[in-house]
Amino acid sequence: MSTNLSRFYAVTALIVLAALSRVLPHPFNFTPIGAMALFGGAYLDKKYLAFVIPTASMLLSDWVIGNPSIPTYLSFILMVAFGVLYLKKVTFGRVVVGSLVSSIGFFLITNFFVWYGSTMYPQSWEGLVACYVAGLAFYQPTFFGNLFFNTVMGDLFYCGALFGGYYLIQKYIWKPSMA
Questions:
Q1: Is the model's pLDDT at 179 over the cut of 50?
Q2: pTM over 0.90
Q3: What's the CA gap between 12 and 57, in Å, rounded?
Q4: Diameter of the chain by CA atoms?
């Protein structure tokens, strides 16, 4: 089996495993969504597959747990694109920044759609700001009680698991043999 094919299967398997972890019990919003998007964008060589495989994996897990939403998928597609563009060179610092940008982007996009067309908030700049403030303050400020904090921590954790796991696979499983 060629190295490129092995790499493809390893990356795909890690993404599918991360997606399936969404069906296990976990703190609300402590999920691998941002990490899957960034990881696929960074490591899938055929860029259309960087969009297809993570999205299909997420659809699979959403099929099991339910509740897919257009704002979540829009955020996800933008995170993949960010991974493709920003993580051409994968470094620890870039992965951390990518993870944080993904978490913040997810928050901004999904809460924008809570505001847009809503009767809960005025359709004005002030209404949008009120929606974002409510999004930050709506949940109890306890460990694993704040959804934004959970998103950030989940993205960081799963980025560590995916990127770190892939690094270990490269280092120890595909280690060049000494002649």
A1: no
A2: no
A3: 9
A4: 70
